[in-house]
Amino acid sequence: MQENSSHILVGGIFTHLVNNFVVKSHHIWTKNDFGGSIGAHRSMPYMIFSKRETRPWRSVTFEGGHHRIWLEVYCGEVSLKQAKLYALDIIDALHGADFPLKGHALIEIQHDQAEYIKLADKNEFLVRLLFTVLTVAD
Tens of pLDDT along 90-135? Predict the structure, then answer.
């Protein structure tokens, strides 16, 4: 049950980001910039889901999940200021967002942490974003 809700949640986040950035003609992101593998050759910036943890969250009246989702934004050869702007795009789109999840209700999504890393072997920035999400099964 929990693993299924985690997959549904990642799909919902993906769809929400694509709808926010691509459908609304956002100037930086394209649909191919979300998801996929690290090894894929693509233009910068792009984002992947790097890690997720899910544990039960329930009471007598509901069954749900407490999720921690890590997103990694590969920024390319940009300044720290530009890397922060890329991260802010995603934070603004997700923090407090409301979007549909098949068979689940999104109760809350909040941004908890941002880590800015300059990759040693390259002159590129990587941003790790952590979001905490609460969902309830319909």
Answer: 999 999 999 999 999 999 999 999 999 998 878 889 999 999 999 9
Largest CA-CA distance found in the chain, in angstroms, rounded: 52
E strands of 46-92, at which residues?
Answer: 46-58, 63-76
CA–CA separation, 13 vs 19, rounded Å?
10
Q: Which residues, 6+ apart, have CB-to-CB distance to 100 below 8 Å?
A: 12, 106
Alpha helices in the chain (DSSP H): 2-18, 80-94
Q: What is the pLDDT of residues 18-71, one digit of tens each?
A: 888 765 555 555 555 555 544 444 567 888 888 999 999 989 999 999 999 999
Looking at residue 33, what DSSP letter applies? G
Single pTM value for the model: 0.84
* Helices 80-94, 2-18: inter-axial angle, 10-degree rounding: 120
Whether the Cβ atoms of residue 55 and residue 2 lie closer than 8 Å to each other: yes
